[in-house]
Amino acid sequence: MSKVVTDSTREGPGLGAPNVAGAGVEGKTPGQLFWRRFRRDKVALVGLFLIGVMIFAALSAGFFAKNVVHHNDVNKFYFEMLDEYGLPKAPNAQFWFGADPAGRDLFLQVLYGARTSLIVAFFATGIEVMIGVAFGVMAGFFRGKVDTFISRMMDVVLSLPVLLLALGLVSACGLDPNGCLGGLIKPGLLLVSYVIGLFSWPYLARIVRGQVLSLREKEFVESARSMGAGNVRIMFKEILPNLIAPIVVYTTLLIPANILFEAALSYLGIGVPITTPSWGRLLSDSSHIFDVAWWTMLYPGLFLLITTLAFNLVGDGLRDALDPRGQPATYGRKRGRERKEEAKEADSELASAAVLVGERGSSMSDLTDGTNEGGSA
User: Fold this and answer.
1) How far apart are CA 36 and CA 125, in angstroms?
2) What is the pLDDT of residue 137?
3) Would you say residue 45 has pLDDT above 90?
4) Rounded to whole angstroms, how far apart are CA atoms 292 and 102?
5) pLDDT value for 186
6) How high is the pLDDT of residue 327?
7) Given phi > 0 = left and psi -120 to 50 = alpha, else beta, which region is 244?
8) What pLDDT is attached to residue 208?
């Protein structure tokens, strides 16, 4: 009796045993796993959307000024928006947020203030990340005297009264239009960014140092060293890529802190120049009239609150997505829901695999019956 062999019988070692594992399991890259965890955090997605709205508002401030509200000059005084007592008038069709205490368009002041806050925050955060990562990697990798020197330097910077030093430096460099250090540092956005960045980098440096102390003892570092890799290559090619996750998470938490720092300096009157709109200065100017002109404090404060809250929400979402094992206990319910969803997905994959096995089994039984009938004939 001859045996009929078809493609459906070539399944593996056993007759009719399909490759179920290959049919039901799909590999995912680290980026896909990260996005899968991050998109489940709806609050973080809302924060990401709000950040996008703020960036769009900051970039399109000039467009709104020329084509929407038709107030080209952000610092123009509109005396018709002041009453007989010199107080600003409430929002209307032409002035959506009303007027500030000086009679300027508060809507444009808030939009341009978003640009100021984001520029200072991103630039200051960039300074902090570059200095903090460089010193943190060197301290954790070389250890010994290098670690001791950098650690003591971080202790000195952390012990300085940052607010008082910022007040002194910004005031000293802001008095002269040419700036200080021979015109190297001029008053403006860069001066505030330098002050914030140069006094805040030790926080990130300590986090990076602790991570590098752990990573330098891993097997892949010893393997790279045994293959002749130098210290610079090991630091920047082997260790630094493994620090991306904590650096990204902490960076998103530094940005709102820097926004609040710039607002505090502007509130005290020593931040950006008076001709540059700033949320902190708007809050300072409205502090003595907010009881009769509530909008002058509401809109700048609301935009400041939404921006800082959005960055914090995104930072928490990135932390949970990049390091799911380090989630706090308060996220237990959310993790429980995620496990249930993962279990449902696994059940659906097993069900589809079982259906596939059943179909192939039925086809094999039909084939066997046909073979038997042919042999009997």
Assistant:
1) 28
2) 92
3) yes
4) 15
5) 72
6) 52
7) alpha
8) 92
Residues contacting residue 80 through CB under 8 Å, at least 6 positions apart: none
Considering the entire predicted model, what is its pTM? 0.74
* Average pLDDT of span 227-235: 87
Q: Looking at the predicted structure, is the pLDDT value of residue 352 above 90?
A: no
For residue 368, what are the CA distances in angstroms to 1, 2, 10, 187? Answer: 12, 12, 14, 88
Stretch 246-268: mean pLDDT, rounded? Answer: 88
Q: Greater confidence, 334 or 192?
A: 192
CB-based contact 195:125 (threshold 8 Å): no
292 has pLDDT over 60: yes
- pLDDT of 194 reads 85
Write out the two tokens for 296: 């002058």
- Give me the residue spans of the domains in the chain: 45-324
Q: In this structure, which CATH number among 3.40.50.720, 3.40.50.261, 1.10.3720.10, 1.10.443.10 belongs to the domain 45-324? A: 1.10.3720.10
AA letter at 6: T
Report how far apart, in Å, the C-alpha atoms of 313 and of each of 155, 255, 310 are.
Answer: 30, 12, 5
Per-residue b or e along 71-95, where b marks 16 or more CB atoms closer than 10 Å to that residue's CB: beebeeebeebbeeeeebbeeeeeb
Q: What is the 3-state secondary structure (H, E, C) of the chain?
A: CCCCCCHHHCCCCCCCCCCHHHHHCCCCCHHHHHHHHHCCCHHHHHHHHHHHHHHHHHHCHHHHHHHCCCCCCCCCCCHHHECCCCCECCCCCCCCCCECCCCCEHHHHHHHHHHHHHHHHHHHHHHHHHHHHHHHHHHHHHCHHHHHHHHHHHHHHHHCCHHHHHHHHHHHHHHCCCCECCCCECCCHHHHHHHHHHCCHHHHHHHHHHHHHHHCCCHHHHHHHHCCCCHHHHHHHHHHHHHHHHHHHHHHHHHHHHHHHHHHHHHCCCCCCCCCCCHHHHHHHCCCCCCCCCHHHHHHHHHHHHHHHHHHHHHHHHHHHHCHHHCCHHHHHHHHHHHHHHHHHHHHHHHHHHHHHHHHHHHHHHHHHHHHHHHHC
pLDDT tens-digit readout, 68-103: 888 888 888 888 888 888 888 888 888 889 888 888
Residue type, 32: Q
